[in-house]
């Protein structure tokens, strides 16, 4: 095998590692967002339970105030009722008292419902809080792991970029130029083997002259179909 082909294969290996590392780095951001989304979802469930609990408690307190106001009103009506000498006014006061007492009973029924709801929501808030705490702890650890993985990938990528640059500088600039032009259009499969007179990249059968030229390994040879650089070794079937 031509030394330049061996050198370009090493360069290709560096490029493949760089592409893989960059692809992995591109997944880090979405993965981190997904993890944080899980924690946000648990926190949102907790916040919603707290909101509903707060609303129930606020309604219950408002009903307590309303019932207290009605009781005070009843006391005032009873005092006015006792002071009146008119039978019609007495009956009117009695009707107002009974109406307010009925309102109080409705309020008390609703208060019982709300007390039961507050108790259930308190349990829900407690459970949601435990889930949110556990999820936040798990998410923090997972995000830390992702951050560490990202740092390692960046360090590895920087090392491969440096190795690639050093290796490319040791090769023939013209050959590297040919390689990089193909790299832009064909991806990381630039230097390919020949098997059964077929290009290892596009898998199209090579013209005999191109095949023999590649087999001779006297110079860089391009596939007549896809333009990739070809190499041939004795273990490849003709």
Write up what this structure looks like.
- With 238 residues, the chain is mainly alpha-helical.
- It has two domains: 17-171, Orthogonal Bundle (Helix Hairpins), CATH 1.10.287.1490; 175-231, no CATH class.
- It has four helices and four strands.
- It has helices at 3-83, 87-169, 173-186, 208-216; strands spanning 191-195, 198-199, 221-222, 229-231.
- Strands 2-1-4-3 form a four-stranded mixed sheet.
- The chain is rod-shaped.
Descriptors for this entry?
single chain, 238 residues, mainly alpha, Helix Hairpins, 2 domains, 4-stranded mixed β-sheet, 79% helix
Radius of gyration, in Å, reads 41 Å
Shape: rod-shaped
Topology as a string of helices (H) and strands (E)? HHHEEHEE
Oligomer: single chain
CATH fold group of the largest domain: Helix Hairpins
Helix content, binned percent? over 70%
Low-confidence stretches: none
Distance between the termini: 16 Å
CATH architecture of the largest domain: Orthogonal Bundle
Count the beta strands.
4
Strand order of the largest sheet: 2-1-4-3
Treating each run of at least 4 consecutive H or I residues as one helix, how many helices?
A: 4
Mean pLDDT: 94
